[in-house]
Design brief:
About 30% of the residues lie in helices and about 20% in strands. With about 270 residues, the protein is α/β, with parallel strands linked by helices. α3 runs parallel beside α4.
């Protein structure tokens, strides 16, 4: 995931993602900023910066599955950015896509930038025990882990929507777990729907989401633009939560992997 050169200071006007996206939504889609905690999202990522004003009041639980305390600013910025896209409260600089939903963030990447497979497995078991509705995995690996592979199958069998980034290493193959048959593989495109040059696409992504220079918090007082499949994965999971809540309010259990793919394609590419 690349960081744009330009960064915005606290003197810039507040950015509200629900307003940013509203003209891209189909006519009957839910209003993202009205989401309640009826839907829970599980996010696997790095740690987050402490004392972020826009996270105050968020229904956010962070759990560390590593054996270290992350102090590296690049890693903390990655996790902070992902959280801000979803549940930033608009107290200072940014309002996220789904600020009133519940977010469980599992820290699986340690101080040296590596994610241990056992940490990922335990994070997924945590999500399973907490009965989250949507899972976002904005990274991946070139090799499949058998235990994680089976656990993803078990989780998805309970109607949990799982999103993962295809990777930014084209022409390499799509990363695991995005290549898992039950996972929704999310690739990155520009604002015209053209796939980004470094997006992995073998096999082809299930979804392409605009994620070029998308703005988010990288710490408590700086907004920066970032690009890539990690960004696309988190945004897709947030929009899926919005649609899922709408379906739950209608007492409908008719949602599945293909149904949400169709719905999200409509969000971004409807006329």
């Amino acid at each position: 995931m690349n960081t744009a050169k330009a960064e915005l200071s606290v003197s810039q006007p507040q950015i509200v993602y629900s307003e940013f996206f509203k003209n891209k939504m189909p006519f009957n889609s839910p209003v993202c900023c009205n989401l309640q905690a009826e839907v829970a999202i599980g996010l696997i990522d790095c740690g987050v910066h402490s004392d972020v004003q826009d996270f105050q009041g968020a229904n956010l639980i962070v759990k560390n599955f590593t054996s270290s305390i992350v102090t590296d600013d690049n890693l903390l910025s990655h996790g902070t950015y992902s959280v801000s896209l979803l549940v930033a409260q608009g107290n200072n600089l940014l309002s996220g896509l789904v600020p009133n939903t519940k977010l469980l963030m599992a820290q699986v990447i340690g101080q040296y930038g590596y994610a241990e497979e056992n940490s990922i497995y335990r994070a997924l078991k945590w999500f399973q025990s907490e009965q989250v509705d949507v899972i976002a995995i904005p990274f991946g690996a070139f090799q499949t882990n058998v235990d994680i592979d089976q656990l993803l199958s078990d989780i998805s069998a309970n109607n949990v929507l799982i999103f993962a980034a295809t990777g930014n290493q084209y022409p390499s193959s799509t990363l695991f777990p995005a290549n898992h048959p039950a996972v929704i593989a999310v690739g990155a495109c520009d604002h015209y729907g053209e796939i980004l040059p470094d997006c992995c696409r073998s096999p082809e992504p299930d979804l392409l989401f605009p994620s070029e220079n998308m703005l988010g918090l990288v710490n408590g007082d700086v907004i920066a633009g970032r690009s890539g499949t990690s960004v696309a994965c988190v945004l897709a999971a947030g929009m899926a939560a919005a649609h899922l809540l709408d379906w739950k309010r209608e007492s409908s259990n008719i949602f599945d992997r293909q149904g949400i793919i169709n719905a999200l394609q409509g969000v971004w590419f409807a006329a």
